[in-house]
Amino acid sequence: MTYTSEIKIILVDDHKLLRDGLRNIIEQRSNMHVIGEASNGREAIKTCSKLLPNVIVMDVAMPDLNGIEAAVQIHKIHPDIKIIGLSMHSSKQFIQGMFNAGASGYLLKDGDADELIAAITTVMHNKKYLSKDINQEFLALLKKGGTLQKTQLSSREKEVLQLIAEGNSSKKIGEILFLSSKTVDVHRTNIMKKIDLHTIPELTKYAIQKGLTTLDI
């Protein structure tokens, strides 16, 4: 991607108050402009394809479709768009999940305004950015091209698992993903076989451990 003086940004978070705060910080910079917003991962994918930003600042833990899986889909279609994960969580599964998904940066929500601007500027120079409050060993690993272990589930299976963990029925999941209830049940069966877990509480715990949901979003 060719660097330009104007940086076009999309904000993705399910809390409007936070989006408003981020917008206020960003719009104080003459070369940075918020061109769109979204409240969940599915909206983010559509908004991104429509507006084609330079940078997406995206919450990691969102209902319906989390930031990690949204990043996977966005990065696959638009690999030049820089993605910065935004989260309250500093645990390995969230950080690794975002970088494995193609993100270029990871910020904690309790960071300050200067760090947000620094992260945007850094990723626009094709460098990785990791919040200063996170163990920098992660960044050293990423700079060497390393990754931590990935889960064996497909992207679609992760979507289904998140929705199961968030209490949705097969019918409701089918409506969200435009699938038949039977197809959702097939995905559910395959998920259970792959990870060898067979109850909803077990699946929910697994989804939380892998950063697919937090259930406090």
Characterise the protein shown here.
With 217 residues, the chain is an alpha/beta fold. The chain folds into two domains: 137 residues, 3-Layer(aba) Sandwich (Rossmann fold), CATH 3.40.50.2300; 55 residues, Winged helix-like DNA-binding domain superfamily/Winged helix DNA-binding domain (Arc Repressor Mutant, subunit A, Orthogonal Bundle). Helix 1 links the parallel strand 1 and strand 2. The model has no long low-confidence stretch (mean pLDDT 88).
Order of strands, main sheet, comes to 2-1-3-4-5-6
The tally of strands reads 6
Helix content: 40-55%
Radius of gyration: 17 Å
Mean pLDDT: 88
SSE ordering? EHEHEHEHEHEHHHHH
Shape: globular
Which CATH architecture of the largest domain would you pick? 3-Layer(aba) Sandwich
What's the CATH topology name of the largest domain? Rossmann fold
Summarize the structure.
With 217 residues, the chain is of the alpha/beta class. Helices cover 48% and strands 14% of the residues.
Index terms:
single chain, 2 domains, 6-stranded parallel sheet, alpha/beta, Arc Repressor Mutant, subunit A, 217 residues, Rossmann fold
Itemize the secondary structure elements and their pairings.
Blueprint: E1 7-12, H1 16-26, E2 32-38, H2 41-51, E3 55-59, H3 67-77, E4 82-87, H4 92-100, E5 105-108, H5 113-124, E6 129-130, H6 137-143, H7 155-165, H8 170-177, H9 181-195, H10 200-209
Parallel strand pairs: 1-2, 1-3, 3-4, 4-5, 5-6
Helix pairs in contact: 2-3, 3-4, 7-9, 7-10, 8-9
